[in-house]
Amino acid sequence: MRKINLLYVVTQLELGGAQKQLLSLIRRIDRDRYNLFLFTAQEGLLMEEALSLRDLTLYKSRHLKRPINFPEDLLAMIEMVRVIKKNKIDIVHTHSSKAGILGRWAGALAKAKIIIHTVHGWSFNDFQRPLVRKFYVGLERMSSKVTNRFIVVSNHDRQKGLDYKIGAEGQYSLVRYGIDRIQFSMRDSSIRKELGISDDARVVGTIACFKPQKALEDFVQLAFLTSQVFPQARFLVVGDGVLRKKIEKLIEKFNLGFQFILTGWRRDIPRVLSSMDVFVLTSLWEGLPIAVLEAMVSQVPVVATNTGGISEIITEGETGFLVPCHDMPSMLEKILALLRNTSFKNRIIQNAKQRVDEKFDTETMVKAHEELYQELAEAKGLAYAG
Q1: Distance (Å, rounded) from C-alpha 37 to C-alpha 28?
Q2: Does domain 4-178+361-379 have CATH number 3.40.50.2000?
Q3: What is the mean pLDDT of residues 366-383?
Q4: Measuring CA to CA, which residue among 4, 87, 2 is closest to residue 39?
Q5: pLDDT at 384 (0 to 100)
Q6: Type and span of the H or E element at 173
Q7: 296-337 pLDDT, tens per residue?
Q8: Going by CATH, does the domain composed of 183-359 fall within 3.40.50.150?
Q9: How confident is the model at residue 15 (pLDDT cuts 50, 70, 90)?
């Protein structure tokens, strides 16, 4: 009997849902059963947090980067193969799309016994050009042949994978995200003063990377529409990215500078959420956005585009609101209903918090992973400590 050598692979330790969930899992997994390893890019906003985790061997790749670069991607895969062989890795568990492809093939080439991939939203979507989407679907289909198990965080992603003939139904396991309810139940009255927001203002906010997927141009349009009928509204965006200058120019075009706050990336998300009156998600595609769950447990009502697995947690008019992508007039209608009717807003808040408390528990998430690892290890005849 020995410990299982378990390698996690993620493209970059940025402030995203996949990365936050992965570190939450690593922090809590049973060290008596597993030797833990993590392979990722050299830089990332969560790198310091990863380095602080006990009994974790961290490999920072010189070649693993988010943009596609075939020579660099090949070198990153070779790095992974060497790490897997050197440490006699039993289980390779990949997270994020690019690491999911490279890491699974590295695991296969290095003859790792078990290869798992968690789908935090697929690498393909309906907004890609047809040839690009076909390319990514083809990669996922090929990679499914070396994948022992897919973990999905929503039924939507499982069905989408099956619809595109990626793996077989028996390869999929549903494991919901886990949210630290205590951390996100705090209310911090000082955050508004810190951000320059008056007590009588009503804050419509979002948390998002500045990239096409998140459609922050729509958020700016929504802000303009809201400001016309609700001038005391303020608009808060937590995040950063390649489209920041474009968003700043759009804010200037609509003359919203006084009402807009762009904070950049922040590590105190629970505090920032406590400053919001309504949380908005304008994404064009998603798996299951963790920011929505964090807002719900923080008692901030959510208005979101109906994409990915969001409809599995938001029931229209009961735990939040769903609108079609790009439909900002409909989103405005929902926001105004929440801002103008306190009792209605409070009912949505309580229902939403109960939904997250029931389905998205951190300890349940960790236990589900450990049970899956044990099941697959025993099926492969691995001696298992514990």
Answers
A1: 14
A2: yes
A3: 93
A4: 87
A5: 65
A6: strand 172-174
A7: 999 999 999 999 999 999 999 999 999 999 999 999 999 999
A8: no
A9: confident
Q: Which residue has the tokens 């994409």?
A: 307
- The answer to whether the CB of 160 falls within 8 A of the CB of 122 is yes
Residue 359: count of CB within 10 angstroms of its CB: 15
Question: What is the distance between the alpha carbons of residues 121 and 289, in angstroms, rounded to a whole number?
Answer: 9
Query: Where are the alpha helices (H) located in the chain, listed in sequence order?
Result: 17-28, 47-51, 70-86, 97-109, 130-144, 155-163, 190-195, 216-229, 244-253, 269-273, 290-297, 328-340, 342-359, 362-379
Angle between helical axes of 97-109 and 130-144 (0-180°, round to 10): 40
- The answer to whether the beta carbons of residues 178 and 366 sit under 8 Å apart is yes
Tokens representing 260? Answer: 């807009």
DSSP 37-91: EEEEES--TTHHHHHTSTTEEEEEESS--SS--HHHHHHHHHHHHHHHHHTT-SE
Q: Check whether 386 has a pLDDT greater than 70.
A: no
Q: Where in the chain is the domain with CATH 3.40.50.2000?
A: 4-178+361-379, 183-359
DSSP, res 199: T
Please check the confidence at residue 181 and state whether its pLDDT lies above 90: no
pLDDT in tens, 236-248: 999 999 999 999 9
